[in-house]
Amino acid sequence: MVVQNPNNWHWVDKNCISWARDYFKEKLVGLQVTNEQCRVEITSMNTLEGDCEVSQRKGKVISLFDLQMGLSYSGELDGEKFEGSINIPEIAFDSSAEDYQFEVAVFKETSKLNQEVKPLIREQLVPRLRNIFSQFGEDLLITHGNDIQVSEDEVKSNFTRANQKASFEQVKKAPPSDTPTGTAAGTSTATPSSVASASASAKKEVLRQGPEKTVVNTSEIHLEPSFNVPASELLRTFVDKMRLQQFSRSELRLTKGDSSAPVLSAGDEYQLFGGNVCTRIVSVSEKSLVMQWRLADWSPSSWHSTMHLEFHESKEYHETKLEITWRDIPVGQEDRVRQNFENYYVRAIKLTFGFGAVL
């Protein structure tokens, strides 16, 4: 990063969210805890949203970050395999280790899983997560602090030179922890910046009509609404033409598929909400549904995001947790699609069919 800032006087920012994604993926994915009966391993980081910057003014370097994270884990208890999620609503520059909150969920919950899995996560895994989050700010400054300043030998102001020196004295006392490379340790020499496009906002090439290509920067979100209904009934709500029209309060316009069939199947395409939402069914199975989804005003017109819906039913608690991994969303549209789905799908389904309480 080239800096033109005489005496390091002016405010300079560096966006480090791509590096943060690589950092946490390397530190967290594969993290495992065990006891005599149970094993839990973090399998993926589904989301990392928010702001992450290193800044400087008048020679003083600071890190500013406020992040929200979603993790998936899997494991085995007495030979029974299970999956779940851990959401961390805030990882902030001014948080202490005790401030971090962890929302732990077990898919297909049973009393046995709750009694064994959640205590193991809270007693063994959560302390390790707290340590990693607490170390993040220091590693962020060590890795990126020098990138936003003119070197000390080019600074003529004693005031800013003193601030610059003081900013790094403490973090230089200890060597930096392992920094991410975007792949597993020891398998690549790529730098964080060289893999940023893959981790932060995947770049997709889509052919417009004709030879011209458009690059779309995309991101991913993760949702986990719960419904007081069996998984089969909830799945039917997303593919039954009549139910779709009932909760959307709009006409279903079938643009591809069998108009006489009451239920949608793979390959069918349709529009809801007066044509403002276009959907294509990719695959349907007993416990999952994959759809391509777009808003009518997205550009290019051929671009669709991809929604993976997994239906996790807990017969003991008479509910189904809908795990949604939503990829290929154009950057800047994340809040919009999240709010649309929560209001016009989740909330509308609960109100229309009585599938759960609405707050």
UniProtKB/TrEMBL annotation:
Point out the coiled-coil segments of this chain.
none
Spell out the family assignment given in the record's similarity comment: Belongs to the AHA1 family.
Compositional bias annotation for Low complexity = 174-201
Start and end residues of each stretch annotated as Disordered:
166-211
Q: Which residues form the Activator of Hsp90 ATPase AHSA1-like N-terminal domain?
A: 13-146
Instruction: Name it.
Output: Hsp90 co-chaperone AHA1
Q: Where in the sequence does UniProt note compositional bias of the Basic and acidic residues kind?
A: 202-211
Name the source's superkingdom: Eukaryota
Q: Name one Pfam family in it.
A: AHSA1
Q: Which PANTHER family match?
A: HEAT SHOCK PROTEIN 90 HSP90 CO-CHAPERONE AHA-1 (PTHR13009), LD43819P (PTHR13009:SF22)
- Source species of the chain: Nakaseomyces bracarensis
Matching CDD domains, A to Z?
Answer: SRPBCC_Aha1
